[in-house]
Amino acid sequence: MGVMKKFEQRLEGLVNGTFAKVFKSEVQPVEIAGALQRECDNNATIWNRERTVVPNDFIVELSTPDYERLSPYSGQLGDELSGLVRDYAKQQRYAFMGPIKVHLEKAEDLDTGLYRVRSRTLASSTNQQSPERGPTAPAAPQRGNQGSYGYPPSSPPPMPAAPPPGANRGDHRTPAPGPMPSTRTRRWIEINGTRHQISRATLVLGRSTEADVRIDDPGVSRRHCEIRAGSPSTIQDLGSTNGIVVDGQHTTRATLRDGSRIVVGNSTIVYRQAEG
Prior knowledge:
By secondary structure, this protein is of the alpha+beta class. Helices cover 18% and strands 27% of the residues. It has four helices and 18 strands. It has helices spanning 3-12, 29-42, 64-70, 74-92, and strands at 45-46, 52-53, 57-62, 94-95, 101-106, 114-120, 168-169, 185-191, 194-197, 202-206, 213-214, 225-228, 234-237, 244-246, 249-251, 253-255, 261-264, 267-275. The strands form four sheets. The protein has a six-stranded antiparallel sheet, with no helix packed on it. A five-stranded mixed sheet has the order 11-10-12-13-16, with no helix packed on it. A four-stranded mixed sheet has the order 5-3-6-7. The longest helix has 19 residues, at 74-92. It is globular, with a radius of gyration of 19 Å. 37% of the residues are buried. Residues 14-25 and 128-183 have low confidence and may be disordered.
């Protein structure tokens, strides 16, 4: 069973208890969990042949309404999220410099439903020289998406093309994307023979009814992946359990061309585009 599925099941066991109110929030715990997994992947640093080190100290910034809903349960939620990161790291053979901690903070510049994850590598007081579970390693800080939190990077981090820097809605959904700019290129996808027009800048696919295109497939995550229309169009995995396969290659992000075949769970998606 996948790490994310186990996490979802643990939370489902608490939904009728203390976590009942948490699930009324725009930001769901499983969405934050997926973002933490991506934070590890995006900031993994190879220290030697046997150890790849990832951040162990995380801050999840929330809008004021979401923070007020989640903060009463921050202790329990932080423990669950830390456990998720630990399980995911074990699965991916990642190592840590110190204990894993997940904190919630309020960010005045975020709207309801948006969140931002920042991370850093912190060595424990008893382990200043080597990653947790690993051999001796340099004491230099982890390079990652740290911003004003954590160690200052030696050079500014690259700015992503989309979504806006640091902002997420669900699994990296951009806030209320509007219609795409006027273009002569028509784009659509075909899922198991059914056509879905791409008329927005972003299109989230998943098993959830909140996804832009719902795929009724047990192998598909609630918010599985996102297609970003552009020149060229791209597809991005949103921390799904089973990942995506594009044109026969298992990947987390890929450029799409007319006729690209995407496999999610047991479903096949064909990306199409045409001029005029």
